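Title: Comparing notes on inverse folding

I've been comparing how different people in this forum approach sequence design from structure. To keep things fair, I'm posting one structure and asking everyone to reply with a full sequence. Here's the target:
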């Protein structure tokens, strides 16, 4: 994981010019989202107590670090059927809280705030902001459990771009293709 973080930060430092926005659709992961450029797809297998999970990362690095958001990503995993009962809201909220904590720990970041959210007015999620690299970067994330699927969206930017219409556009454009 640390190698991925180092590679991400290195890519952020060398990111190029902005590209036009486009709608990205992944039928297998059952989502679509608008991104300013192209996604690079990475896949890892993770051994867990419930078996091997395939963890997908879709990474878009469109901008120069001094001007705009430098990182847009979607993370996706499919859990075995029935692992996360949709009516187990307490379990879902606990798993989302653990997601925030593990993300902050993996990135050596400080969580500034969190907020409970809903996707499509029915799927529980969480929004959070983290300071990275002693305040030299800001990460904003949203995570959701949709039946047995996990989604996490994230932006990374320098602190002067904390409030950014591109981040809002990215987050708000996320749609499920099926439920």
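Reply #1:
Here's my take.
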């Amino acid at each position: 994981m640390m190698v991925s973080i180092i590679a991400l930060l290195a890519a952020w430092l060398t990111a190029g010019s902005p590209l036009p926005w486009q709608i990205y659709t992944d039928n297998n992961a059952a989502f679509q989202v608008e991104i300013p450029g192209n996604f690079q797809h990475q896949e890892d297998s993770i051994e867990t107590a419930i078996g091997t999970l395939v963890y997908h990362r879709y990474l878009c690095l469109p901008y120069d670090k001094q001007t705009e958001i430098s990182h847009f990503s979607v993370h996706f995993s499919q859990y075995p059927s029935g692992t996360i009962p949709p009516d187990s809201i307490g379990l879902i909220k606990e798993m989302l809280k653990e997601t925030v904590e593990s993300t902050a720990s993996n990135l050596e970041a400080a969580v500034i705030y969190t907020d409970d959210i809903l996707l499509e007015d029915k799927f529980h999620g969480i929004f959070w902001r983290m300071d990275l690299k002693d305040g030299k970067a800001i990460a904003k994330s949203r995570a959701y459990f949709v039946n047995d699927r996990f989604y996490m969206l994230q932006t990374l930017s320098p602190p002067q771009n904390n409030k950014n219409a591109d981040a809002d556009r990215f987050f708000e454009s996320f749609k499920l293709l099926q439920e």
